[in-house]
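Supplementary Note 3. Input sequence used for the single-chain structure prediction.
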Amino acid sequence: MIRKTLLTLSVAAAFAAPSLVQAQAAPAAKSPHTFTGNIGLVTDYKFRGISQTFAKPALQGGFDYSHSSGLYLGNWNSNISSGAGFPAGNLEMDFYGGWKKSWGDWGLDIGMIYYAYPGTDANRTSGTQITNPRAGGNTHTGSVDNKELYIGGSWKFLSLKYYHSIDDYFSQPGTKNSHYLDFSANYDLGNGWGLVGHIGSFKLKGWSTGTDATNANYTDWKLGVTKDIDGWILGATYVDTNGKGSCNAANLGYYCFNNATPAGAGPKTKDAGKGTLVLSVSKSF
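The predicted structure, written as discrete structure tokens, is reproduced below.
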């Protein structure tokens, strides 16, 4: 009787063993691939402190892919105003890729970004072509675009990033090697609150407007707060620059933009670098 009981237990154990092995098996390996998306709405699209939407709202969004090796690719899009230097255009499409890695509190990011403006025509700027007197009168034809290499480092909530144009900066002839330096901070205050700050410096190379090329150089800054509500990020940020954007007819600034209006109404002008409170809502998925 005892031997029969032992035999029964042995058989039961043999059938139970696979289940036990399955229960103790290692969890499935995590995929090295990550795909994310984002969407947002802002009251004014400010690129490096300069309004790209004539102080009007913008709908924005994109997609990102990253690999565990640090490699990544992405696309981001926004509506823009033709008067912000994009003749006949109303859409910005950014394509970027690079390598990013972190070691504890430190991080490194190296890559390239291409800014495309489908449908733009560089021959239609205030009725003339985009021409640079300093570049021997060279004229840009075709669509407006921009190509930049970048390298950045980060430490905890601080980051420093340098962008360098490898072609004419937004299709302005002879402006290759223009560059922008971005110093930013994103500090977590707890309970879903965050503090954001930034200061940047832009230098345009080789361009002349008939006065002083430094009219295009400027510094921009911003300071704001964010609040995370169930994955939705609400933001309020003040953005300002010292860019020359006066729209005084006797002394027009480099960043005084104009927008086409119905025939007979005349152009509307705006200081694109003027200080503005930008409200935003965004979500990643």
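The chain has a mean pLDDT of 85. The first helix runs from residue 2 to 23.
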